[in-house]
Each structure stands twice: as structure tokens, then as C-alpha cells.
Amino acid sequence: MLAEKALDLVRELHRSLGGTLSPYNEDKIRQVLEEMQTLYDQNKDGAQFAAEGQTDLISAIQVRHAGIQRNKRCLLAYLYTRLEQIRKMRWEFGSVLPPDVKYNMCEQEVQWFNQYNRLLANYMRSVGESGGLDLTQDMKPPKTLYVLVRCIADHGEFETQDGNTVLFKKNSQHYLLRSECEHLIRQGVLEHIIQ
Amino acid sequence: MDASEIEFLAEKEHVRVIPNFSQDKIYLISGDLGPFSAGLPVSIPLWLAVNLKQRQKCRILPPDWMDIDGLKDKKQEEADSRFFTDMPSPFYMEITQLLLQCATDDIPGADEVRTLIKDIWDLRLAKLRSSIDVFIKSGASHAKLNHLTLLEMNTVRQFLTKALDHMHRLKLCVSGDPAVQQ
Amino acid sequence: MAALLVSSGMTNNYFSLDDILASQETIPCTFNVKVATMGYLDQSTSDVDINMGTKLDLPFWLAKYLHKGSRGIVSVDTPKTYKEGYRHIFTADPNVVDLYRLGPYFYLFGEKLLSLQLPDTDDIANVLLKTFQGRFRNIMDGSQNALHSDLASQMEKLDVQERQLFAAGQQGLHEFQKWESRESEKLSTSAMVSNHRKRKRIGYIANAT
Amino acid sequence: MSDLVEIDSLLSSNTPLNNTEDGEEEAMTASEVLQKLEEAWLNEKFAPDLLPVKSNLVECMLAQIDAMEANIATAKKGDFRISVHRMEIDRIRYIISSYLRIRLAKIEKFTTHVLQEEEKHRDTDTPLLSDAELEFAKGYNSSVMSHLTNTALRHMPANVASLNSKETAVVPLVDSYVFLKVNETTENVLIEEETVDAGEEIMDLLQGDQHIMRYRPVASLVESGAVSLI
Fold this sequence. Notes:
The complex is a heterotetramer.
Chain A: H1 4-16, H2 26-51, H3 55-93, H4 99-102, H5 107-125, E1 146-151, E2 156-159, E3 165-168, E4 173-177, H6 178-186, E5 190-193
Chain C: H1 17-22, E1 26-31, E2 55-59, H2 60-67, E3 74-76, H3 84-92, H4 99-102, H5 106-114, H6 121-145, H7 151-156, H8 160-180, H9 191-208
Antiparallel strand pairs in C: 1-2, 1-3
Chain D: H1 2-10, E1 16-18, E2 27-29, H2 30-46, H3 55-74, H4 80-109, H5 111-121, H6 131-151, H7 165-168, E3 177-182, E4 186-192, E5 201-205, E6 210-214, H8 219-224, E7 227-229
Antiparallel strand pairs in D: 1-2, 3-6, 3-7, 4-5
Helix pairs in contact in D: 1-3, 2-3, 2-4, 3-4, 5-6
Protein name (chain C): DNA replication complex GINS protein PSF3
GO biological process, one term (chain C): mitotic DNA replication initiation
InterPro entries (chain C): GINS_A, GINS_bundle-like_dom_sf, GINS_Psf3, GINS_Psf3_sf, PSF3_N
């Protein structure tokens, strides 16, 4: 069938939505692009004969053209939807991605992630008059100024806003300003404990 | 919308507290508070009342409607009425939840209050579901939702708007609108 | 992260994966002309060409393209699921039908069919609406009560859009319950991070064995 | 300590702020600005499309927060009022952050559409985007376009190697259903356009009423403030 490989790409990504990003399928993308080229070349040849009056070739050209368009749509939707996923990762993982997540991205996607990172940072810096606003914080309505947290893993020393140094040792508990540990909670370093 | 965001809105509602300290007026961006005099009731937003209570700096006076007899009547009224009745506070559920969490000792009959409020909530939600069903079956294009509170709306928000969006498209199909038929 | 998700629904946009999958559903077509060299599309023969009069099920996107215009390359027929026989079943008892098996994009594909101007277009449009209205109460009750019973079996017979609706109902309920139990007060690890963690752990186990 | 009192009184809600633009006098107190910002936040949250930006409100509130923070820094440690002010700042910052985040998400989702609409709004009193948002939108658009070009489009046959933005632009679904509350009675609102088998539907929106209906018919009323999305 026409554009079957392109549909595979779409199915593959559709299945993985909601979970983590599936590996970039470079091989299949190349095959889709090859199919498009083949259909295009056949149409060029066909167009010559069709001009000489062979009408059953005109209908073949239309079929192939529909196939080219379909391949294009599937491929672009695949790439575009992946960008949407990668964008979401910036908000959930932060500005540095775990290596095995990065591993599933192609070189250009890694570049795009870095570009998005910069765009976002520039934007956030320009909010207000005094150095900007970190929009990746304050993800939930505030309840208390301070929160009790427990370290899920060793994470070294941490300097608090008032200049004290605390050691994030596995299972140690700390009472910290919410605003200074929200990122670490979201990234799974600390766990928020409700008393 | 997250329920925690509706709670955030509810926390702006004022309640009366009796502070055990004195303090001049506080000029907040959202308006002035106080002055606070130990032993004298003062009206402050819920977010601050909860905080002061947690720090044992005040006693909270329950809102007038948080009263067992009144709530029993309210429950009966809700059960008898086909429509949603007007609740004494648009944030009755959130206020109850927060006060019963941090200030149980300040609420007379706290457990019974909790049960009554939950009963009223359940009555209203059941009513909401059956009216949604009637709404969809009738094929009407809009509905008036007076007296429904934000938190009640929110429990069905995504579901109801999705269902209506879907039905709207299907109705356009029936009327032959070409915009849908791409 | 709900705040970041602009209400999406099933947008029929160019990049929508759901829309692409729905337009892959097939339609019975008859070729009005000979199509040279494209015989490979018909897996039932080894002919080089598609001959005039050939009947073939084509995906919607192709059928639509070849059908348009006054000298359509193909004529289209209503797919079985949307024909009168099935329409009767849907109207008689919409709740017993397994739309997922018949669909899975029963409504979305149905909407697309309308653009082909089949002779029974009006009836199809009507049955789409009536079917949804008829099934709505079950979907709502299921999504609001299916906390302890088997979710999978509740959702099995629903088409893709109905499943999304069901999930939205469930989510509303769960969020409220999380709020009621004060769980929503807790600041939590972002969903992708904890998914990633779980996956890694499974990965290690898989590697170890 | 005396500093705190002095600046505090400057920030009291009784003192009108000079929130003027192009010479038009429009004095609002800080608490009124906050109220407006909160409304803008909720409208933005529930509207399917991007609403004109309320830069004034955001900037004004950020300035208030900055002033208050400077203020707190000079206060004596342990002053009871510090924690109260801090909690309020947290609450306001949450509203601002959430508002700007929702806008960014819409800008990213509807980039092409938003940039086209911005053209129409740019020189009016109600620009759709702030300068920073506009810059972000342009940057985002070009990063996505060049990604698609580099990974796919430029490897495609010449006749299909470009994107027709009319065909591919993701547009907001303005026919989506929303919940709303009526602030000012508005008569004769056209709720349903006339169709083949049904006549048009007109209704009066009465102050205080709550409705669920499609966004499109009330979009202009949201902008004018006659209704609020809830």
C-alpha cells in the first residue's frame, strides 16, 4: 500500500505518547523520503507519456501524487509531535535532560531542545524590571512559606537563600523555603512531606 | 483547572478570628488588614487565618452557616428542590475542608458538620449528573447553571465541555455545515 | 502540569496523529477508469494495471482525493458499518454495540465520510448524533463510578473519542478525590521524571535477568 | 523598621496608583489592579484562544512585589508582618506565573495563527502580545520551521518541499464550550447562528447568571468584561 511506512511512524509515536519519547526512527524516515522520491520520479516519467496522450497514466499520476502528500503529512506530523514532547520535557526535567532520554533524540532534536531552552530563558529574563521571573517555579498555588522535605538520594551541599549550607544526604530531612526547593522536588531529588 | 486552584481562590474569602496578639494595621497589596487586638474578633482572609491558627496565634470563629441545625435544614431544602439551591457561600466545600483540617477544636460539632456538608455535596453532584444527561439528550446548545459552585463545576468541567464540543460537531454534521466535513 | 495543557480535544489539524489514523480507515471504491502501472495496490491480483471496474477498499485519504471532481477516478460506496443495517442496530440499542471494534474512530471517520456526499449522508449524520446521545449516560456513569470495578472492560466498547471523554470524567473525579484527601497539597515529582525512573528500574531488572 | 511603615503606607490600598497610558487618567489602587489581573488570569485560563495581553497589570504587580521585597529586606528580623507579606507575595507571584505560562503554552501551540493575528493588533490599543512574547513567538516559529525543513522538507521532491501555513496552522477551537458568569446584563446576544433546519437563537444574559455555552458568541463580551470565564 502507498505511504505504509509513514503510517508506521505515526502509529509508533501514537503508542508511545503519554510515556517517554520513543527512539527517533531515522531508518524509517529515510525510507519514507525515498518512497516520496520514487513516486515523484515515476510521475515525471509518466507525465511525458501522458502528454503524448496516454490518459490511463494521468490517473496513475494522481494516485502517486496523493501518496506523496500523505507521506509528507505523516512525516511532518511525526516530527512536529516529537517537538511537542521535547518541549514538555524542558518543563518537566528541567534544562538538562538525562542521557538515556537524550539518546532517543536525533542530533537536530537535541539542538532544538537547546534552542528552546535559550528562547525560554530569554523570555523569562525579560519579564518585569528586576531580572525576570522563573516560570518553571510556582507550579502549584502556594500553601506555606516553608516545607518539610526528605532527600531521596545523596545530593551534596546546598546553600539556602539566607546563606546557610545544608547537606542533602539520603533520608535526611530539612525545613526549607518552598521557593528554593520546588525544582528539586519536581526533579525527584527531594520529597515533600506533609505533616 | 486544578481543585487546588479553586481552593486558592476560596482562600481569599474572609473569616473572623480572635487573635491572641496585638498588631497595628498591615498594609497588604490586596488591601489593609487589622488592626489586631488580642481577644477582639477581626476579619481576615482564610489563607492568613489558617496560617495564624497553625502558629497558634488565633482562634477561628466558624462562619454563621457552619451550624448543625442550619445545615440540616439546608440538606432538606436541597433534597426537596429540583433545582440547585443557593448555597450560603460559593466556597462552602473548600471553607469546610480547610477549617475542619486546621481548626477542628474551634468548630462545634465538627464531625457532624463534615457529614452534613458532604451529604449536601453528594445531593448536588447527583443532581448535576442527571441534569447533564437531560441536557445532552435534549440536544440544547447552552444551559444556565445558577447556584452551581466553582468546585462543583470543576469536577465535571473537562468531561462536560468535551462532550458538548463533540456533540456540537455532530450537530453541525446533521445540519450539513461544510466546515466540519473536511 | 495540567496548567500547561491548552484544552486540546481532537483537533483536526494537519499534525494531529488521531486525525491521520482516522483518515486511514477504508472505503469500498470502484475504479471508473484504468490506472496504468498501479496494479500493486490491489493485492488480490498480479496485474500491472488497475483495470476499469476494479473494486478495492481504499483508505479515506486516497479515496477522497480520487473521488473529487466531476470525472472521479473512483466511485465510493458507504462502508458496511455506516450502512442501513448497522444504522438500525445503533438506533435500536446503541449501548450494546462495540464501537471500538467497528471503528475505532467511529465518529471522526463518520464525519469524514459525510464529505464524500454519499446518497445516505443525512442518515449517517443523524445516526452519529443519535448514537452518541444514546450512549452518553453510560459513559458518564461509568466514568464516575468505575473506581473499583474493572476499568478495562468498561472502556472496551468505546470508540477513541468516547474513551477520551471517559478518561476526562475519571480524571475530574480523581482530582477531586485527591483534593478531598489533601493529597493535592503535596508538591510532587513531575510525571515525566517519575515515569522515567520507573522505566529505568524495569530496565535494570530486565538487564539483570 | 520606620522604613517599613513608610513604604507600607505608600502601598496601602487607599493610595491610588498612577496607572496611566497615553495621557488618559485612570487611577487604580493596587488591590484593584490585583483584582483585574486575577480576572485576566482566569479568562486566559479558560478561553480557547489567546486574549490581548495585560502587560500593564503584570508590570504593575511585579513592581509592587519588588517594592515590597525591598521593604521586607530592611525590616527587623522576626517582625510578625514579614511572613504575612511574604505569603501574599507568593500568592501574587503564583497568579502572574500561571498567567504567563498559560499564554506561552497557547503561543507555542498556535504560533502561526498568533503571529498572523498579532499583525492585526500590533498598532491598536490592545496588542495581542507583549514585546517579549512577540520575540519569543517569532523565535519559536522559526526554530520549529527550520527543524522541519532540516529534517524533512529539504529532502522532499521540489514540488512539495515547502509548508503551506494556511493548510497547516493550528488554530484555536473557538467553538469550544466554556463556563461563564455575567458581570453586566447584555441583551440580544446571538447564541446560535441560523442554520438550515433551525432558526437563530438570541438570548439576554442577565447579571449574576452562570451559563455553559460556546465561546465564540461571547468572545467579545469576555474582552469587554461584560462576562467572565469561570
